[in-house]
Amino acid sequence: MSGLLNPDWGFIQEHFDWLGHIVEGLVMAVVVAVIARPLYRWRDAALIGLAFAMGHFHGREKRDYEVSVQMPPPHLNGYRMWDWSWDQATDFWPTAIVLMAVMYAAYRYRR
Question: What is the pTM of this model?
């Protein structure tokens, strides 16, 4: 029986996995921005964090694709994102789009 206190994690994983990746990407960007903040202004640190998070997700999904198709090194075909599975694409693309939109807003932000 699922409910508020005992959610159906299988359903969430199956239908809302993409949302978890977006939240993870945003949290990762904030962590990297906080680490970068002593060296950069907040806006620049935020841009660094967002770029790092987007690169992380691309690398992770590329690796997952290479493993799933047992691709031998040097893994150059793993960069062909149009060959990824639907699950890999829905992990990467929504996250990249949201992070890029936040990055654009941070870049355009003026005090």
Answer: 0.77
